[in-house]
Amino acid sequence: MMKHRFTRSIFFTLALCLPIVSAALSVVPVPAHALTAREIMEKVDARDDGDNMIANMEMTLIDKKGQERVRKIKTFSKDKGKDTLKLMFFMEPADIKDTGFLTYDYYSGERDDDQWLYLPELHKTKRIASSDKSSAFMGSDFSYADMTKRVVDEWKYKILKQGEVRGHKVWLIEAVPASKTIEDRYGYTKSVLFVRQDIFMVVRGIHWVKEGRKLKYFDIKNLEQIDGIWIGTETHMKTNKGKQTIHRTVFKWSDVGFNRDLDEALFTVRRLEKGI
User: Fold this and answer.
1) Which secondary-structure segment (H or E) carries 185?
2) Contact of 50 with 257, CB cutoff 8 Å
3) Taking a C-beta distance cutoff of 8 angstroms, is the pair 19, 143 a contact?
């Protein structure tokens, strides 16, 4: 049976969600009591997140001492039916230049997403195993699993309450993995997702990390409508242990464009290894 997916990663949500994480553009408000938690997440899944996208991205890694490392990335995304193809090339700094990351994000949960990481200094492409998808993506607070869409059917939902985020009404939805396999893949025992009621988009999230007694906090600090598509152009994820923030990641998007002429041949392991 086909399964629904919704965006929660910074990458196209980012949207950790790493990670972790994201309605029609003109939505008639629905009374809170009229929808179940599952129905809300199905509407999140159905939200138009654009196609044939090209963008620049800046990823800033901040350690607990406040020291920063900045990485610049070129990103591409294309829909293939209900699946999504994604490609990232790291442009700066020099020590990671030409590193590439390719994802085949399958809409159906019948098969796991395919992900490959190309390491130019080793001239080697590493396929990301399911057992490794809860680990950090390129030193960030987003996991490899956060860089893909969640399958709606793989989580169990409950409405906790209503609230506000930056002046907009939201539902707080608890999402618990439906199986140990999903819990292991994401590395989360549960998430609380803040869903904007007007555009059915996840704009904030809290994730309970399975190991290390840590919490991850996802937040879209800046939300814009580009080419008619809502996108988080500045997204943050921080990892806390107790009351201390031990690491933070900030993604900033620029020069975002949809409906570009992208050939499916761009999204191959061969092109990943060739570089931009």
Assistant:
1) helix 180-186
2) no
3) yes
**261-271 pLDDT, tens per residue?**
999 999 999 99
Cα dihedral: 143, 146, 152, 155 (round 10)? 30
pLDDT at 7: 46
Average pLDDT for the chain: 90
The whole-angstrom separation of Cα 31 and Cα 171 is: 11
The C-alpha atoms of residue 44 and residue 33 are separated, in whole angstroms, by 17
Identify the pLDDT of residue 110: 77
Least trusted range by pLDDT, from 3-7, 31-35, 140-144, 185-189: 3-7
Secondary structure of 48-102 in HEC code, one letter for each residue:
CCCCCEEEEEEEEEEECCCCEEEEEEEEEEEEECCEEEEEEEEEECHHHCCCEEE
Percent of the chain with pLDDT over 70: 88
Kindly tell me if the per-residue pLDDT of 141 is higher than 80: yes
* pLDDT of 79 strictly over 60: yes
Distance CA 262, CA 250 (A): 27
Q: What pLDDT digit, counting tens, does each position of 26-50 carry?
A: 344 445 558 999 999 999 999 999 9
Take residue 160 and report the two structure tokens written for it: 């906790």
How far apart (Å, rounded) are the C-alpha atoms in residues 86 and 233? 17
Whole-angstrom Cα distance, residue 96 to residue 149?
A: 26
Give the distance between the most distant pair of CA atoms in the chain.
55
Torsion sign across C-alpha atoms 201, 142, 161, 167: negative
Alpha carbon distances (Å) from 39 to 49, 95, 117: 18, 45, 35
Q: In 3D, which of 221, 217, 209, 220 has the Cα closest to residue 245? A: 217
